[in-house]
Request: fold
Amino acid sequence: MSLSFASPTPSASAARRSLSARQLAVLRAVGHGLNDQEIASALGLSGDTVTRHVRAVLDVLGLRDRCAAIVYAFDHGIVTPRHRAAPARDTVAPRPAEVTGPRLELGLLGPLHARSGSTTLDLGPLRQQAVLAALASRCDHTVSSATLLADVWGTEPPLGNVVPVYVYRLRRGLRCGNGAAESVIARDRCGYRLLGADVRLDTTRLDAAVAEAGAALRAGDLATAVAEYSRALGLFRGEPLAGLPGPFAELERFRLTERRGALSQRKAELQLSLGRQAEAVDELQSSAALFPHSEPVVTLLMRALHEQGRSADALAAFTRLRRALATDLGVEPGTAVRRLHRAILRDGARPAGPTRCGVR
Reply:
């Protein structure tokens, strides 16, 4: 256990006067979110002793429950938000000096992460991160505590309403800029709201790139549209919201993953229309690995391979699709991909024309 609970900070003087040194150490551990068993291990106490100390802390400070103790620990400086330096391998470039705007960056298109300047912020336990993800996905909209509770815990809520505690920690840790007093999370009587003007979201950048691609398509500039789709796809750092619990994170993860697949398909369609089969094959092979049951993706891959003279590889792609559908879903491939399969089997047959690309 790397946390130290024995030495209170100077700002905890009020609590120091009311509590014994051992009780103050227990309060700090509670503030860090540890349960009784973890506190016992960290402080070398028995579980029963920790339970008695927790009860004594609540009685002495007049606190209602453990959640109130966590808030008290933060309010009185006994526990402070923790930050860690960005890993050396992180290659995200710092924002150019001439660019103005929000200092805090939030990433949802992969494992959730937050960055302020060159510092990666510690977002706390997974359920606390899931609360932040739910707020970030509804940026600039107020979300009630009850909604956040359902988003993160579903039909199995905790015994106490810990949402205010998690939001409190996030508000303390996520500021508008270096040294700023204001949090990027606003609070009112209806709930909590992530302030979009103070945060740079990768999902917002994704929307902007897709909008630019759509504008290029409407102008007939397919090459620029391909470049913008590439920029959008480059924002994904892996599985969106990877590892976060709760029904909301699961649905959002599915939605963003499906969007990634659709963008990859659009990009490949345009590459085929431009006669860039080799680039389309690379894109589609990556997409087929991520979405092995996607018939549209495999259909495009088969066409691109066949137009390159790689009919055997195209037939192998169909075989993999049929096996995946039969094994995982118990179904056969659809009409369109089977028709293309038969066309490739016919000696010298070619697919009928390039894929039609449209704005969707």
